[in-house]
Amino acid sequence: MQSPNVERVLGAHDVSPREYAYGKQVTEKLQQCFQSFGYQPIELPIVVQEELYLLKSGGEVIAKMQEFVHQNSHLCLRPEITASVARAYVDQQLNPVGLPARFQYSGAVFKSDRQFTQVGIEAIGAVGTLADAEVIAATCRCLENLAVADFKLTLSHMGILTQFLAKLGLEDRLRNLLLSNLAEMRSAEGRDQLRQLLSEMYPNFGQIEQESQLVKIFAGQDANQAKATILELLDSLNIELTGNRSEDEIADRLLTKIKRRDCTKDINQALDFMTDLCQMQGSPQAVFGQIQAFLDKYQCDNQALQELQEILQLLQAYGVDESKISIDLGMDKDFQYYTGIVFEVGHPALGADRTFCGGGRYDNLVANLGGSSTPATGCSFDLDLLLLALKQENKFVPQELPAAVLLLCKDSLAYGIQVATALRQAGIAVELNRDAVPHHFWTIQVGAAEQQSQTLRLEQNGREQSLSIAAAINQIQQP
């Protein structure tokens, strides 16, 4: 009975020696560039606690995580590496000498639809636009070193939306839903789909309703006052609080439910804001005036705009071509930990919806993982997509393969092994016995006569020479 073929896992891929060599070459160029900015290499586990990403990632990432249970632990294959760097920093496994601590990494990451290699940097403890600009400039320098010509750098700022949603006082679940669906607000179809989703989560959303007396009672109270009112009301009705939850937890849950019953006004404000925010895109000089008018309309401070302008000035000092830079405040990032400047780098070969590099500022992630309040910024390349862009620009050039030898031994195997060992010690790859000879290979034949004279017969492209081992090594190593 014939055994069935075992196919590779969907989304994973096999890499040929030629493509592996080129991918390694590109990775080394990225790492050398990062090294020139002071980023030191680290290596982190591929298998991580699922919890690391459940609370810190967007819904799309969570839906695509490859998760499993092992010895009662809920684990996953890492879908990205930034959170792992922050976790290792909090665990004091990276031992930085002072801040900012600059780390670089390269490794496999996994989502349900694909496996790919991520190469990136993280600057833990890096403050302000100077650090943001450094990460972006390092990215552009990498592309310059790789001679990538047709890339496009897009800048945005997550703080504009997060601050507005915080001002509305929306609950975390609703806030995270809106943050992860920002890009849906670009089209009428996307807006309708989001409204439908909100209606399912909040049945009263979209309905014309009178403000309840309970909502009116709590409208002018802060959180502490509202909780005190609830507890006083329950006490006056002789309602005994039982169970495992504290009085504060019960009051918080009741207050959330009361406010949730009348959230239409706040949600509509958020949706209008997000719709207008998505219109803020274009070249920096063309869009900065529109952004200021937008911020004025919604009574937002202009800190984000100032940071974007500072970034542009710093990138100019780094020599980044401004014609390659655009602004898009409707940029939708997969990870909810971003707090400030964010960016993506795309290429025509990938289409409008895919980018090969992205990153930004995440000032709350370290604290959310149990560390002290620590600002941070970073970025990562999707190596597979970067290679695709390089192929499109005809920069996927096969490396010159190193000199290699096929050694044929007819009747003097021991001498053949002696010759092979000498060549290998000189840095020359040697194979014994192969059916076909690749074009870049030299061929060496040895037999009893060669063993007697301590020579060998060296051949390439039909030319044969009888040489000593040392002379053969010199001949093969000549450029």
The number of helical elements comes to: 19
Shape: elongated
Average of the residue pLDDT scores: 87
Instruction: Tally the beta strands.
Output: 17
CATH architecture of the largest domain: 2-Layer Sandwich
Integer tally of domains: 3
Largest sheet: 9 strands, mixed
Which sequence of strands runs across the widest sheet? 1-5-6-12-11-10-7-9-8
Helix content: 40-55%
- Identify low-pLDDT runs: none
Radius of gyration: 30 Å
CATH superfamily of the largest domain: Bira Bifunctional Protein, Domain 2
Share of residues in strands: 15-25%
CATH class of the largest domain: Alpha Beta
The CATH topology name of the largest domain reads BirA Bifunctional Protein, domain 2
Structural class: alpha+beta
Distance separating the two termini: 53 Å
